[in-house]
Amino acid sequence: xxxxxxxxxxxxxxxxxxxxxxxxxxxxxxxxxxxxxxxxxxxxxxxxxxxxxxxxxxxxxxxxxxxxxxxxxxxxxxxxxxxxxxxxxxxxxxxxxxxxxxxxxxxxxxxxxxxxxxxxxxxxxxxxxxxxxxxxxxxxxxxxxxxxxxxxxxxxxxxxxxxxxxxxxxxxxxxxxxxxxxxxxxxxxxxxxxxxxxxxxxxxxxxxxxxxxxxxxxxxxxxxxxxxxxxxxxxxxxxxxxxxxxxxxxxxxxxxxxxxxxxxxxxxxx
Length: 270
Known about the structure:
Elements: H1 3-24, H2 37-57, H3 62-86, E1 108-111, E2 116-118, E3 126-131, H4 138-156, E4 159-165, H5 169-179, E5 184-187, H6 192-196, E6 200-206, E7 213-214, E8 217-218, E9 224-229, E10 232-236, E11 242-247, H7 257-267
Parallel strand pairs: 3-4, 4-5
Antiparallel strand pairs: 1-2, 1-5, 3-10, 6-9, 7-8, 10-11
Helix pairs in contact: 1-2, 1-3, 2-3
């Protein structure tokens, strides 16, 4: 067995896995780098090592080549998938139907409990309404957990949180229980509200919301293209007037805790 080839293949696999895990660890902390240079560097290193290990192993015995090939191919496939996913990160925006100063567009949806919901329930309330991709999205999951952690600060300013996605009632219920969210999740499976507000992302890579997690993040991989919401936050006052809008141009990047609180304080300074 070619020990050098096997060693390089193993190092390649560990470098690739390590780089991905370190990147994923930034998501729950909302510290996702705009340009993940370190991740890209180590993924390239992993690919180079994998290819070189294959080059060294190919002249050897079949068993040796097979072991090296498994580790190397896994490294190359994982790194290539991450690179491909990154090419999908930009969101085509510009079709939003509301702006700051506009009145909330009335809508209906269903809660994660399956109860009919009307935006009339916002009357007299200050609301942070979040349109998000779905409970399968690790970035959305982390952001909504952040909103949940912000509730004590938001409550001081009389702000309630509601979050809406195309997830079914059942999927919304799974996410709410899985992530321990205490605010209302709204289901819009036909994208009626999403289209009404002009926050539809056409044919984006998505998945199905499940209860499984790893390191606190959803584990169900995206597996199909479909329409979904562009991550968008609307801050609405008690008169139904939109006071602040935040929309992601890169689905990985979300407004920080400080940005959200500053928007709330600016809109509702007493």
